[in-house]
What does this fold into?
Amino acid sequence: MKQLVKAINQQEVLPREHLHLNERERQFVQLSCTDLTYSEVAEKMCVSPRKAEGYR
It folds into this structure.
């Protein structure tokens, strides 16, 4: 997550393999970049809201 934040702050594009995110984490990042709430993200990911918050 630190690498992702650093890349965003520096407006740098990192290749996917440098972020070390699994598929579910990538899905969470994509969905959380929308206007969805954590509850809505969790519903789309078919997990509990608590589990979705764990991906943060």
Observations:
- The radius of gyration is 12 Å.
